[in-house]
Amino acid sequence: MIKEKSFYPTKKNLNKVPTLGDHNGLSKKDLKSDFAEISEKLGDLQELIFAESKHKVLIILQGLDTSGKDGTVKHVFAATNPQGLRVASFKRPTDLEARHDYLWRVHSQTPEKGEFVIFNRSHYEDVIIPTVHQTLPRKHIAQRIEDINAFEKMLVSEGMTLFKFFLHISSHEQALRLKARIDNPKKHWKFELSDLEERKHWKSYQHAYTDIIQKTHHKDRPWNIIPADDKDLRNYIISSILVERLEKLKPKLPQFNKETFARINKEIKKLL
Amino acid sequence: MIKEKSFYPTKKNLNKVPTLGDHNGLSKKDLKSDFAEISEKLGDLQELIFAESKHKVLIILQGLDTSGKDGTVKHVFAATNPQGLRVASFKRPTDLEARHDYLWRVHSQTPEKGEFVIFNRSHYEDVIIPTVHQTLPRKHIAQRIEDINAFEKMLVSEGMTLFKFFLHISSHEQALRLKARIDNPKKHWKFELSDLEERKHWKSYQHAYTDIIQKTHHKDRPWNIIPADDKDLRNYIISSILVERLEKLKPKLPQFNKETFARINKEIKKLL
C-alpha cells in the first residue's frame, strides 16, 4: 500500500504537481488486483465501524469538473454496506440553503457515530468559486478560510475522522474526458454546458486550490492531492489512504460481559 | 425470474403461509448464479434511474427481529451505487421525533427524483407495536391504518414507486438465528436483549401483521410476503421483484437535442 504522507500538499503551485503517479512500481494488472484486496478491507472496516458505533468518518471529495468524484464514489466504496454509508452531494445551493450561512447545509449532513459520509463537493466550493469569479471581497474570502479551519477543528476535536481528497487532473485529461462524455451517448447526462465555461478559468482554479489547500491543511485534517489522470491509480491511492488511517482507529466489535452472556445463553437454550 | 404475483398476501393467517419457498425448481447453485445476474441488473437500473432523475423509489422492509432486514440491505443492494441510494433506519423514536406525529420522521426521509431509499423498519412499526402491546386503543390503531393508506396513496399519486416487503420467517428459524448471534462473538453486536422479550409475543405479531398487510395492500402499493428462512432464496426473490417492476418504468438516459449536440461538439473539437 502507498504511504499517505507522499500525498501531502507542497508549497508548489498545483500546475507543477504531477497528475499522473508512478504506479508505485506496480503493473496495471497488479494495481487492479491490489485494489480489489484493499477495497474488501475498506468494506470490512466500514462494517466494523458501523457495528462499533464509536467513530464518525467524513470523506470530502473536491476537484475540477470531470476529475472523477462520481467515479471515486462508485468504485472506491463498491464493497461497503449502504447501511452506515451516505453520500451528500452539494450542488448550487437551493433557495432555502442560500438563505442560511454556507456551513449550514454541510453541517447538517455530517456523520453520526458509526457512520461514513462522503461529501461530493463541499464548503470548499464556497471559497473556490468566489475566488475564481471574484464575487466576494478578498477579506470575506480570507474570513471564510478562517471559518472553515475553525469548523473542521471543532469537528475533529469532537471526534470526527476527516479525510480531504483533491482529485488532481491535467487540463489535457479534462479535455479528453469532456470529449468522451459527448462522444458516448450514455455519458451525455453527465455533460454540463457550464463545464466548458468553467474550463476557461483553469489557471485561476489551480491558483485558488493551491492557496486554500495550503491554508486548510493540518496534521489531524490533512489534504491529500491525488494524481487522478489514471482512474485505477486514483482508486488505489484513495482506498489505501482510507484503509491505512482507519486501521489505526483499531475499531472493535462490541462484546457482552460474562454475566450477560451467561444469562442470554441460558435463555437461548430454552428456545431450541 | 420469479413472478411477482406469487407473493401477494392471502387472507390466511401468516402462521399458515410458508416461510420456505420451493426454490422455483432451481438448485442452490443456480439460485446463486441467477441472483448474481439479477443483482447486476438491479445495479444498472438504479444508476439509470439516478441519471434520468425522474422516478422516486421507496423500498420498505418489515419483519420480525432476525428476519433479515440488514442482510437484505447488504446483499440485494450490493451492486448499486451509493450515490443515489440511501438507507433510513427507524429505531425507537428520539425525543425530538416523539414530539411529532409518527409520519413526520418517515415523510422527511422519502426519496427525491432519481433516488432510491430503503426503509429499514418504517411507519408500520407504529401500528404493529401498539397492537401487540396494546398501548393504544383499537380505534386509534384503526385510525393509523387509515392514515397510512392515505399517506401512501398520496406518495404514489405524486409519482412514488413503492415496494413493501414482509420478510417472513418461522419461529424455529428465529430461534436458530438468535442462537447463532450468541454463539458467534462477531455477531454479538446484533443481539438485542429485547429480542428475547419480544419473541414471547410471536403469535400476536403474526396476527398483527396478517391484519395490517391485508388492510394496506393495494395494487399500486402492494405487499410482498417473502419466504425468508433461506437467505439466498430471499435475496433472489426480492431482487427479482424489484427488477421486474423497475424495468416496467422504462428508464431512459437523458439525451441532448441535435442543435445543442452540434454546438457542444464544435466547442469540444477546439479543445484538443
Task: Present the secondary structure layout.
Two copies of one chain form a homodimer.
Chain A: H1 28-52, E1 56-63, H2 69-76, E2 85-89, H3 95-98, H4 104-107, E3 116-120, H5 125-132, H6 138-157, E4 160-168, H7 171-183, H8 193-199, H9 202-215, E5 223-227, H10 231-248, H11 258-271
Parallel strand pairs in A: 1-3, 1-4, 2-3, 4-5
Give a written overview of the molecule.
Two copies of one chain form a homodimer. The first copy, chain A, has 272 residues and is an alpha/beta fold. Helix content of chain A is 50%, strand content 12%. Chain A has eleven helices and five strands; from the N terminus they run αβαβααβααβαααβαα. The first copy, chain A, has a five-stranded parallel sheet with strand order 2-3-1-4-5, with helices on both faces. In chain A, helix 5 (125-132) packs antiparallel against helix 6 (138-157). Chain A is globular and about 70 Å long. The first copy, chain A, starts with 27 loop residues before the first helix and ends with a helix. The A-B interface holds A 51-52, 70, 73-74, 77, 80-87, 89, 118, 120, 175-176, 178-179, 182, 185-186, 188-191, 193, 196, 199, 253-256, 260-261, 264-265, 267-268, 271-272 and B 51-52, 70, 73-74, 77, 80-87, 89, 118, 120, 175-176, 178-179, 182, 185-186, 188-191, 193, 196, 199, 253-256, 260-261, 264-265, 267-268, 271-272.
